[in-house]
Amino acid sequence: MMKQIVLLLALLLPISLLAQTGKVYDNKVVHSEILNMDRNFAIYLPPDYETSERSYPVLYLLHGAGDDHTGWVQFGEVLHITDNAIKEGTATPMIIVMPDANTGKRGYFNDLKGEWRYEDFFFEELMPFVEKNYRIKGEKRYRAVAGLSMGGGGTFMYALHHPELFSSACPLSASTGPINISDAKRYLEWQGVPDASEKDAITYMEKYSALSLIENMNAEDIKKIRWFIDCGDDDFLYEGNSLVHIAMRKKEIPHEFRIRDGAHNWTYWREALPVVLSFISDAFHQH
To answer: Which domains are delineated in the chain?
Structure first.
């Protein structure tokens, strides 16, 4: 009888272990009328998603330049890290959506001419699609955004443009955008606008400079977001993140600001992800 019990436990053990694992699908597709193309995204579903009927909070996790929707999956180890955080109780079970901002034109923003409207696609098509097709809680409290480098810039802009939609924003090693007019012209040149006028540069600054937005927005709107800003002490984007921190301090905007030992690489971001998951879970949890 004892041998039968041991055998039964041995058979059940792999099933039990499997049930504790989330799943990542990295080849999902949403059609975009705005961009006139199909767009890929990856999605992490928590361990109990398939065995429950409840809805979950959502994190929109943005990749950096040179990667695509699989960056956080392949190099960021999002499955392993999130599973561990949920198992250890430092993060609440959540859905993580990772869009592709590398196909067509690279980046998370609309261009000045209105010919490439990625930001519009994100808010008007991607978010409604995933929140309709997956069991995602639709309230601001249960929605967060985070990202690294270019995706950190996307995190800043999306949260500042739509503070009514996100409870938390976590830019990591963020590209914070231009800090002056000549800097804005360089950004536009990188984006294929070599002869940008001063008016174009000012327009770009007003929309896509984290520093400009923080200095000119109503502080009460920015305070609607819980901020976690993290950048390595050897990161080439250190200056912009430090200036954003100072601007927030001057306007008395609560935020977490972390400068850790590290550079602009996946080692740094993999170490940051568990902290991000814990930080955003503080908003997701019932207290």
So the answer is: 19-178+218-284 (3.40.50.1820)
